[in-house]
Amino acid sequence: MSEAVSVVPSVRPEPRLQLLGISKAYPSVVANDRIDLTVMPGEIHAVLGENGAGKSTLMKIIYGVTRPDAGEMLWDGRQVRITSPSAARSLGIGMVFQHFSVFETLSVVENISLSLDERVPLAELAPRIRTVSEEYGLPLDPYRLVHSMSVGERQRVEIVRCLLQSPRLLIMDEPTSVLTPQAVQTLFASLRRLAAEGCSILYISHKLDEIQSLCDKATVLRAGRVSGIANPREETTGSLAELMIGKELPACRMTPRTPGEVRLALHGLSLPSDDPFGTDLHDISLTVHSGEIVGIAGVSGNGQQELLKALSGERRLDQAAAVQLCGVDAGRMDPAQRRQIGLGFVPEERLGRGAVPALSLADNALLTGHVQACGTGMVHRGLIQSGAVGSFARKVIEHFKVKCGGSSALASSLSGGNLQKFIVGRETLLAPKVMVVAQPTWGVDIGASMLIRQAIIDLRDQGVAVLVVSEELDELFMMCDHLAVIADGRLSRRVPVSETSVDRIGVWMSGNFTDRTDATPSTGVRHHVPA
Amino acid sequence: MSRLEARLEPSRAMMLASPLIAAAAMLVSGSLLFSFLGQEPLHAFYVYFIKPASTAYGIGELLLKATPLILCGVGLALGFRASVWNIGADGQLTVGAIAGGCVALYFQDVEAVWLVPLMLLAGALGGMAWAAIPALLRTRFNTSEILVSLMLVYVAYLLLSYLVHGPLRDPDGFNFPQSRMFHDAALLPLLFEGLRTNAAFPLSLVLVGGAWFFCARTFAGYRMQVSGMAPAAAAYAGFSEKRNVWLGFMLSGGLAGLAGVGEVAGPIGQLQSSVSPGYGFAAIIVAYVGRLHPLGVVLAAVLMSLLYIGGESAQMELQLPSAITGLFQGLLLFYLLAADLFIHYRFKPAARVSALPAASGGNAA
């Protein structure tokens, strides 16, 4: 840390990093088209853009993972070619990835030691980790095994790993997607401190409010090009969104509705995970009524996967009564049997689980549309009725405005958002009585997100019982009637969205369900995630 | 720097062209090989690839050899499509031959039309029974079906060897390790006078048609395809993994067992200590050269059959070693796997661009 440049703000300080006309084309898409970017020393610079706008490609170019097709890169005013991540690190560039690359069976210090370019004895490294982590308010026990740590703590490992190399530019790729709102505040404090010492930070995100509270400057990308450079504090969320998506932020319509009978009930569901590093479920109870949307919030890796598999039937239970669908004990049933009763399910992974990449959309319609109770007549006496399959697929494509080359287009040829529209559409048009949706808009552009959310709200209005599991709090606050929180395999009780706040849900997300502040719900927070 | 670049979508054209490219590359390597062996390449090619198929008898032999390859290949293709890796078709073929042979020998005094169908049924059941072992171990204990099915091939060989050395040995056979010759009612009828091609060939074509129908039109075929392409999607849709494994093994085992009966009730006419020159293994190549498609399997089986017969002809006329057959088979598979790379990737030659192409112009921000 002592080597870090002491920045004396001169009249015209040299930019720390300057990109000029960076372009990168992939076979399908121009990811970056003549991008210019200037980062000053000690600046927290946001790179804002939707999924697929080219943010990640640009960061990979800066970190030396990918080489640009054209363009120049200046570091402290000198032209450089960064050919590998280790070259980037030797310049003083550190990067914290969205998906961490840590070995779960190793301790913190072992993990960090593996990633350092020089060899440092563990006994020497451990105290350094402790010092640096405490200095920046990111406490870490160097000898703890990574698998026992929460996702937020694992992120600290990645950050501390970068800090140990005294970075002069730190790249953070969507760092808050795995954090509780409170942990986000802690992280921001650390980042501000780091910036004050002269380290530049490139902060990649699509969350406007975070960028407004943290960043000094924002470069907005849209479809691979720079669509604007702004001071986020002087902009409104609306004007930033317009730069980002080219139009105003659309909204969903949701009117109050009285829920009906119980359609989905979990009674004391406990389930050991079949993944050694998974999360066991403990005594989960929940009811979802006809005509309401219940959201489950939580930081990823707290048992959502396990819960969803227990709901869908991909993991079967010993106790039949632990999962009840429309009054039927369904715990021992397989997914097809549960669909027969009226379950619809949209999984988190689209390619390979919700859809078969190498099959056509028509064949993918058959994947769940074959269930007799849905009445689509796709299978008759063991034979596929291709006419019925094709017309159902075309109906989904039409109703949900799926952009594709028709029902014979391969699922893999669709963009993430369009495929998600197809899957949600397929499950919706199969007329479920209970609908379970995981991460409805993960990696989906804003326009498609709104369409998907509206489709789910419409289902609720038709009297379907809907359960949504999402890591995006603002999404849950936007579309749910009730919320519950999953933390470490336990589920909180459900509360009406109108009677809770992001702060309280945030406290619950850290695993502390015993709050005494029930009496004073803060109001007027429905559409704002604090930053 | 030239490099391989991932294609956006697997290339269909390349998927069909790949076997042809592989066959061509095999021929080129073969001609090099022939010239190293001191043969005139064109003449050697004529002897190897043209001459065997230039007479009616030769074509009959070609179809005769192709029959077990079609049967085994189509069964394996069905399994491979579903990611059920049955490597032991040769063992299932052997057990099928034993089962069919036992029926023939048991009813050696019976002259009835139901005997051959009964033998075929027994053969299919025998092959299925042998295939049931890896299927059971896989679904019960999650054992690797590749290893178990492969190892059971050698168990089947030894079982056959034991039977023809012991219980089933022809008492009048001068102690040769072989059974009594089957009587006429236990032999598959010949199709044409003077050719050895028998009724197993049209039967195999009918089964190919059935396999095509199964893959293209039935829901069970769709389930197997999804299980092979995306296991998580199959689980999501509620398709049982166990049922998939069982179906894959039963189909491929049953068809291999039929092929075994086709051999012992056809050209061989008795049980011997070996009933297959590795048809079950060659069928793996057949299945892949045929793109795991039933109709492709027929073409690939004919090509592979030509390699067998041409190899024999090359041994006799050109005094080449018998390893030449295996060598050509190996070359074919090797080139096929290499060419298949280009289904998912394409070659991108070195792009000689100027160092900084027009980076300074037109930066609209």
Indicate the topology.
The complex is a heterodimer of chains A (531) and B (365).
Chain A: E1 17-25, E2 30-39, E3 44-48, H1 55-62, E4 70-75, E5 78-79, H2 85-91, E6 93-96, H3 108-115, H4 122-135, H5 151-163, E7 169-173, H6 181-196, E8 200-205, H7 208-214, E9 217-222, E10 225-230, H8 237-245, E11 262-271, E12 281-289, E13 293-297, H9 304-312, E14 323-325, E15 328-329, H10 335-341, E16 343-346, H11 361-369, E17 379-380, E18 383-384, H12 386-399, H13 416-429, E19 434-438, H14 446-461, E20 465-469, H15 473-479, E21 482-487, E22 490-491, E23 495-496, H16 502-509
Parallel strand pairs in A: 3-8, 3-9, 6-7, 7-8, 13-20, 13-21, 16-19, 19-20
Antiparallel strand pairs in A: 1-2, 1-4, 4-5, 9-10, 11-12, 11-14, 14-15, 17-18, 21-22, 21-23
Chain B: E1 3-6, H1 12-36, H2 41-50, H3 56-81, H4 89-106, H5 115-141, H6 145-165, H7 200-217, H8 219-229, H9 231-237, H10 241-268, H11 279-289, H12 294-318, H13 323-344, E2 345-348
Antiparallel strand pairs in B: 1-2
Structure, explained:
The complex is a heterodimer of chains A (531) and B (365). Chain A has 531 residues and is of the alpha/beta class. Chain A has helices at residues 55-62, 85-91, 108-115, 122-135, 151-163, 181-196, 208-214, 237-245, 304-312, 335-341, 361-369, 386-399, 416-429, 446-461, 473-479, 502-509; strands spanning 17-25, 30-39, 44-48, 70-75, 78-79, 93-96, 169-173, 200-205, 217-222, 225-230, 262-271, 281-289, 293-297, 323-325, 328-329, 343-346, 379-380, 383-384, 434-438, 465-469, 482-487, 490-491, 495-496. In chain A, the strands form 5 sheets. In chain A, strands 13, 16, 19, 20, 21, 22 and 23 form a 7-stranded mixed sheet that branches. In chain A, strands 6-7-8-3-9-10 form a 6-stranded mixed sheet, sandwiched between helices. A 4-stranded antiparallel sheet of chain A has the order 2-1-4-5, covered by helices on one side. A two-stranded antiparallel sheet of chain B has the order 1-2. Chain B has a single domain (18-31, 64-346), classed as ABC transporter involved in vitamin B12 uptake, BtuC (Orthogonal Bundle), CATH 1.10.3470. Helix content of chain B is 68%, strand content 2%. The interface between A and B is large, with 44 and 32 residues.
